[in-house]
Amino acid sequence: MASEGHARSGRTKPSTFVLGALTLAAFVAVIAAFVFTTWSERLAGERPCAELPDRHEAEEIMRKHPSLKFHIERVNAGPDDVVLSSARCRGKAELVITHASRSDRDEIEDLLEQGSGAEEKEGKNDDDDETYYGIPVTFSKR
């Protein structure tokens, strides 16, 4: 009987404390991983995967607007310099444009601004990232 009274005195078992601590630690780890992933992408200048269009949607946009791609390729001298990539985010896509010089990049940015015109302004985000009719563009220097 003495042990029953002791158990009812409000003390918690050490295993309950450990279980609670482990649950809290797991929760904090999940939140930290999410925040780290989101901010590391932002700091690296990349959009989070959740903000990228689906690969099929991006391919359809590229099919509907081939002339802008053609003009960008003329600045860069080749179709291998304008590529839809899903390497960073499975099932999503971004347009990777490789350029040789800063003047080439400036010319491509002008083309994107002119070519994506009205559609881009509607879907433009606050940090003025370049898009190709809504597909985020990542620049890569040769």
- What's the helical proportion of residues? 55-70%
The overall pLDDT average reads 79
**Uncertain residue ranges:** 118-127
- What count of helical segments does DSSP give? 5
Question: Can you summarize the main beta sheet?
Answer: 4 strands, mixed
Structural class: alpha+beta
- For the largest beta sheet, what order do the strands appear in spatially? 1-2-4-3
Distance between the termini: 81 Å
- As a whole number of angstroms, the C-alpha radius of gyration is 25 Å
Tell me how many strands there are: 4
Q: What is the beta-strand fraction?
A: 5-15%
Helices and strands, in N-to-C order? HHHHEEHEE
Shape: elongated
Features:
142 residues, alpha+beta, four-stranded mixed beta sheet, 5 helices, 56% helix, 13% strand, elongated
What does this structure look like?
- With 142 residues, the chain is α+β, with helices and mostly antiparallel strands.
- Helix content is 56%, strand content 13%.
- Strands 1-2-4-3 form a four-stranded mixed sheet.
